[in-house]
Task: structure prediction
Amino acid sequence: MLSYRHGYHAGNHADVLKHAVYAFCLAYLTKKPKPLLLLDTNAGGGLYDLESAEARKTGEADAGVRRIVGRPDPPDLIAPYLALLESLNPDGLLSTYPGSPAIALAGARAEDRVALYELHGTENSVLEQFVGARRNTSIVKGDGLEGLLALTPPRERRMLALIDPSYEIKTEYETVVQAVAKAWSKFPTGTYVLWRPVIERARVDAMAERLRRSGVKSVYDIELCMAPDAAGRGMTGSGLYVVNPPYTLPEAIDRAMRWLADALDAGGPTYAGWLVPPDRP
Result:
């Protein structure tokens, strides 16, 4: 149940899309001079060594983040993400990769609060060592979806939540939508970034339909696949549902998708658009 270790997959194509969008949302939301809760339901270890035995075993970063660093004319969408990568690798050699906790801690201000949830015992210990005794930051060895519901509505009245389970348990395709819908009903103005893998198209379609029927408003859908849908090929791509995205995100995504698809040599479905449009006055 808790066998997934992100060190084997750090910096892959799914991370590029997920972390670029997450860093973009964070950079936008921290422009407003009011405190923010950053909540991560599946935090992982925080920082990854791309030269480790785990990372080299799969080589997924070679087909992911290493394809975009140094590529000319990067779009605005990935600017905050690239800036963090460059700050962590000042020698120009991409060996250190930031997981979502590293992105959150790099972007959080003194007045912001960071809540990191991680169930895996080893990952939780690594995360504690990475974070240390940082002010306004908590690490919980517990269920992140329960944490999401427990902390909404946040006292800050502003929130960016990242929800990205491994989906090793097939019921997670349902439970994550249920949790986001419940959190949204308690706090409908928060920004929720929900990641999904593309392994079986039927599961993705069912997940989208559940989200449509959930009552959640203003859901932007992004998908970037490396290969066409095919049974038995594993994860051919990934996507994000962004609830209450920054108003600048759709245009930034529109400008970035072709660049990302070309850089990552994506040969599968690529899409961005409203799954559930925002209510307009």
Observations:
- Strands lie at 37-40, 47-49, 96-98, 113-117, 137-140, 159-163, 191-198, 219-225, 237-243, 270-276.
- The mean pLDDT is 93.
- The two ends are 46 Å apart (CA to CA).
- The chain is about 40% helix and 20% strand.
